[in-house]
Design a protein that fits this description.
Layout lengths: L3 H8 L6 E5 L8 H7 L10 E4 L6 E5 L3 H4 L6 E5 L2 H12 L4 E4 L6 H10 L4 E4 L1 H9 L3 H24 L6 H14 L3 E2 L4 E4 L20 E6 L1 E3 L2 E2 L2 E7 L4 H20 L6 H13 L38 E4 L2 E4 L3 E4 L2 E6 L2 E4 L8 E3 L3
Parallel strand pairs: 1-5, 3-4, 5-6, 12-18
Antiparallel strand pairs: 1-2, 2-3, 7-10, 8-9, 9-12, 10-11, 13-16, 14-15, 16-17
Helix pairs in contact: 1-6, 7-8, 9-10
Length: 365
């Protein structure tokens, strides 16, 4: 099977001398560096990777990251102790290139400017589309890691009813979930979302000091990261007995998700799946209350590329992994979202998050 580097070149312009991935010197790391290197440890601030067609990637890493970089697969490693030394490695490795591919969506301007100054006679060519297209389809190792990350989220979601107690805050429940992820060998893929009652109307709500009360519907959106790969899940609970209004809102979203899931298969267009899902909600009393896309690609990043939305231009293919997460949001009332991580296969969708997605009632009102 072609290397990840060669798969990127297969989608890139043919006349590139090399592709250079450069991480910011602060905290911004281009996950494509992790993608091509397959490192499992380390921070890699300021580090980079040089890709050449048909060759092993060259990782250009600081002394701080040298030991961690040896977790990479099939890469050469060049270590630098100073910034001038890093520039010399780049100059020696690249020679006098005419066209250098860069990941414009993953490089900060300061690093792009450094590269342009170092190679004033070279044209910097944006290869974002080639990288995105390559990373959309996961290889066997990536699928295995996401599958295992989903297993962690399943186990934690099943444990959540045990965490719920009257008067606890959203922050306290979020902390319980994060601890449960760590206990299973993962780490949070993103900031855990916990919404009690009316707070569920904010799709990207941050847990606060609201206290759990009888009758509250609870929206929980969280994910685990395992060996750099992410899972994403949203499940709904009620503290006590669900009211008729809560069940009606839940049932509408549940139906819309089933509509979207049965269409999440190879050959389907992302835009069309979203339109079908939105139409299922707009045919109810919650018309207009579905205010985001139906899903997104997931992998090294939680949002790992294009997904299922009005703006989507992708056609699903085997090996893509998407979330499917319709929702309804009513300010002053609350919200419902149901989300699964889904692998696209030749035989249809495989739902990787298997824990029950029913509305779970916990305790008594």
């Amino acid at each position: 099977m072609p290397s990840r580097s060669d798969r990127i070149f297969a989608h890139a312009p043919k006349d590139l001398d090399a592709i250079v991935i450069l991480n910011a010197r602060s905290h911004w790391i281009d996950s494509t560096f992790v993608y091509v290197s397959e490192v499992t440890r380390g921070g890699y601030g300021g580090c980079g990777a040089i890709l050449r067609r048909g060759e092993r990637p060259l990782l250009v890493v600081s002394a701080l990251e040298e030991e961690s970089a040896h977790t990479s697969k099939g890469c050469e490693i060049a270590m630098y102790a100073t910034l001038p030394a890093q520039k010399e490695i780049l100059k020696t490795a690249l020679g006098e290139p005419k066209r250098i591919g860069i990941h414009a969506a993953g490089i900060v301007k300061a690093r792009a400017d450094e590269l342009a100054e170092l190679f004033p006679n070279a044209e910097l060519v944006d290869v974002t589309d080639a990288i995105t297209e390559t990373r959309l389809v996961k290889d066997a190792a990536e699928i295995d890691r996401i599958r295992r990350a989903c297993r962690i989220t399943d186990e934690v979601a099943a444990e959540i009813p045990r965490f719920l107690r009257r008067g606890m805050t959203e922050k306290e429940l979020a902390a319980e979930i994060v601890l449960a992820i760590y206990r299973r060998g993962g780490k949070p893929a993103f900031d855990t979302i916990v919404c009690f009652g009316v707070n569920g109307s904010e799709p990207h709500y941050s847990p606060g000091d609201a206290r759990l009360a009888s009758g509250d519907m609870i929206l929980i959106d969280f994910g685990s990261q395992l060996e750099n790969y992410c899972s994403d899940i949203t499940r709904m609970y009620v503290f006590g007995r669900a009211s008729q209004a809560q069940r009606e809102m839940f049932d509408v979203v549940s139906h819309a998700q089933r509509v979207a899931l049965q269409e999440t298969k190879a050959g389907k267009k992302g835009r069309e799946i979203h339109q079908l899902c939105r139409e299922a909600i707009d045919a109810t009393q919650f018309a207009g209350r579905f205010i985001h896309g139906t899903g997104h690609s997931i992998g090294l990043d939680v949002h790992d590329g294009p997904g299922l939305s009005d703006a989507s231009e992708i056609t699903l293919a085997p090996g893509m992994i998407m979330t499917v997460e319709p929702g309804v949001y009513v300010p002053g009332v609350g919200g419902v979202r149901i989300e699964d991580t889904v692998l696209v296969t030749n035989n249809g969708p495989e739902i990787l998050t298997e824990v029950t997605k029913e509305l779970v009632e916990v305790g008594t009102a």
